[in-house]
Amino acid sequence: MEQPYLCSECGNCFSQKSSLHIYQRSYTGEKPYICCPECGKYFLVKPSLHTHQRSYTGEMLYTCSECGKCFFREALFYIYDRDLLRGKSRIVDKRMNESGKSTEINILHGN
């Protein structure tokens, strides 16, 4: 695949100009999208903001066909689904608690 767009900072190449532009934000710190009205956090790309906002709205887009458990993040759903297929009975969900520290929560399948 042709990758004509070159990052002048590090030499990484991209096939789309928009991908290069998003990548270069890691150098500039630019986060141009509206911040989350709940917590004030900014995001590099709009879909990340939308995913984050689902944590406040309770909107669940991903559902386990075995038990009906729902997830607002695709990545957590795939981890859950993968572990279920491997016969594991739980997943670890990392989330922020009220004090802003990351906590790990063990979730039993079907709970």
From TrEMBL:
PROSITE patterns registered for this protein in UniProt: ZINC_FINGER_C2H2_2 (PS50157)
Domain of life: Eukaryota
InterPro entries in UniProt: Znf_C2H2_sf, Znf_C2H2_type
Record domain C2H2-type: where: 5-32, 33-61
Keyword annotations from UniProtKB, A to Z: DNA-binding, Metal-binding, Repeat, Zinc, Zinc-finger
Classification via PANTHER family: C2H2-TYPE DOMAIN-CONTAINING PROTEIN, ZINC FINGER AND SCAN DOMAIN-CONTAINING
Name the record gives this protein: C2H2-type domain-containing protein
Organism of origin: Staurois parvus
